[in-house]
Every structure is written in structure tokens, then in C-alpha cells.
Amino acid sequence: MQPVCILGAGSWGTAQAILLASVGHEVILWGREQDGVPLIKTSRQNQRFLPGVAIPDNVHITTDIREAVHQAGAVILAVPAQTVRQVLENIANLLPAGALLINTAKGLEIDTGQRMSQVASAVLGEDILARYAVISGPSHAEEVARQVPTAVTAASVNLETAHQVQDLYMAPWFRVYTNPDVAGVELGGALKNIIAIAAGIIHGLGYGDNTQAALITRGLTEITRLGLAMGGDFRTFSGLSGLGDLVVTCGSRHSRNRRAGEMIGQGMSVQEALDQIGMVVEGVYTCRIAYQLAQSLQVDMPITRACYRILYEKASPGEEVSSLMKRGKKHEIEDIVQPDDVADKV
To answer: Over the stretch 167-191, which tens digit does the pLDDT of each residue have?
Structure first.
């Protein structure tokens, strides 16, 4: 059996290494020296992100990307979305023929607006899409590493690839579904981070359960609107990478997007909140590109617009909530129109 290579030794990369090693795979975990990989290697745990969780002996830890990639049967991207292009460029001449490429980063590339599969295609060529899959869903690293029951979706345009990834990850505590809708799964995983920042903001402002429930529901509406405009399947957004990931990211203490929003709602500046989190908060980047996409595609996204104004124009969080509540009257579902072929099946 060929080893599985994981690129990125942060919380999610480390959690996946622990998961895959626990079901018998040989795993190579790669990270940069400046990210503390030598300490992870000697202590056999990621003390910064997953303290107290042992890394199994069948996880080989390295800072040499060539060593990590060159014999892998599957290469997993567990780096922040904004660095995916650079990492793919670094491995373009190293990726073994036939190796699966599995993306687990959730975001849109801010310079291009591209989804991660589009970035992969741009760097490695369109042929990579037959071997490409994205994994997304409600899967906080802190819980996956501790074998808390979790379910996710593996999406690929190639059904065989989706099944291979499903088989790779399946464990008694980790259930994987398949989905052919790569666009929808990638967009659900990326856009929910914006709504999670908004959820944190309203919590920081002192609002309650009613407000959060309304935010999640209307946030899902926004995700679905933009997702449909960008080629996603209507049904995907009520699944694990849509509603599932949205609920967990908006409500969990593990969510760095929600925590950043909470600090902003309590009066911190955006930069102060990011400095205190100390990790990448993907929703900040995604909000900017989603706001621009919504404008260009003429998609109404008032929550995203309010977040953009707070994050990039220094608008008052309280005033933005008030503006959202005072908008003109609307019908709840008038602007979510499912395609005819989907409507006939549900």
C-alpha cells in the first residue's frame, strides 16, 4: 500500500494524519520548520493545536516536501486556501502519476475568486480533475483527532475517485458520503465561514438564540443563492458541506471564524482579533471575494455585505445589524428558485 501524504501540519492536517494512521495507513505529514514541525516530530503531538493527542507511530513527520510526495498514492492538501496555489506549484513536478489529490482547505482564492479545484486545474492541468476530490463538512480537528463521531462529504467529478477517497477515510467514528457536485461542496465549505464571523459578531454584541437562528437560516439562503449562480447543485447546500458545516461553524467554541467575529462584536479591531486568534481566519478573505462575486453576478447577499462593511470599511457592527433588520419587506423564499430538473425530483 502506498503511503498517504498530508501537506500541512496545522490542526486539520495533524488530525487527518491521526485519523488515517489509526485505520492502518502509512502517513507522511509534511510541514515547514518555522511552523514547529521539529517539535511535533520529537514530542509526537501537536502541542500548539492538539495538545494531549498522541500522533501514532505510523505517521512519519518531515519538512522535506520531496520526501513527502514522491511515493504517495494520495496527496492531501491541508494548508490554508490562500497558499494552495503555491504548494501545488511546489509539487507539480513531484506528484506521482495516478496519485489522488484531495483538498481539505475551505476557501476561495482572493486574487482570482477561484475555487480550489479551479486552482488545481490551473496549476496542474485539467486532467488532474479526474483524480481530484474535495472533503468538506462539519469536522473540527479538535474532535476528529479524539475520535468524536463525524460525517463529511467527498466530492469528485469522477465517481471512482470519490469512492477511493471514501474508502481511504472511512472509520468507525468517521463516516464519508460521496457527491458529484464539486462546485457546491467547495462553495458550501468556503462561504459558511462568512456567516460564522457574523454569528460571532452577534454573540459579541450580546444578542441571543433567536438572532443566531435567524442568521444561520438567512445565511444559508445567501450561500445557496451564490452557490447556484456559480454552478452548484441546489441539493448540496442542505447537506453536510452546506447546512451541516454552517451549523457547526456558527455555534462551536472550536471555530476560529466565530471567535474572531465575537471579538469584533465586543469592540476589537479586525487586526486585533486576528492577532489574538493567531491562526488563519479564512472567512475574512472569503468575505472579500464573495462580496465582489455577489456584485458581479448580481446576487443579493445582505449578511455578506454587512460583514464586508465591518471587516473592510470599519462599519459599526451594531449599526449593521440594525440596517439588516430595517430592510424592506420580503417574501421568505421568493428568490431561491431551484432548477426545473431538481424541482421535479423533490
So the answer is: 999 999 999 999 999 999 999 999 9
Side-chain-side CA neighbours of 225 within 13 Å: the count stands at 23
Q: What is the largest CA-CA distance in the chain?
A: 60
In CATH terms, the superfamily for domain 183-340 is N-(1-d-carboxylethyl)-l-norvaline Dehydrogenase; domain 2 (1.10.1040.10)
Does the pLDDT value for residue 342 go beyond 80?
Answer: no
| Separation of alpha carbons 263 and 256, rounded Å | 11
Instruction: Tally the C-alpha atoms within 13 A of residue 342's C-alpha that lie toward its C-beta.
Output: 10
State the catalytic residues. Answer: 192
User: How is the beta sheet containing 132-136 ordered, strand by strand?
Assistant: 59-62, 27-30, 4-7, 74-77, 100-103, 132-136, 150-155, 174-179
pLDDT in tens, 122-135: 999 999 999 999 99
Q: What is the pLDDT of residues 245-288, one digit of tens each?
A: 999 999 998 999 999 999 999 999 999 999 999 888 999 999 99
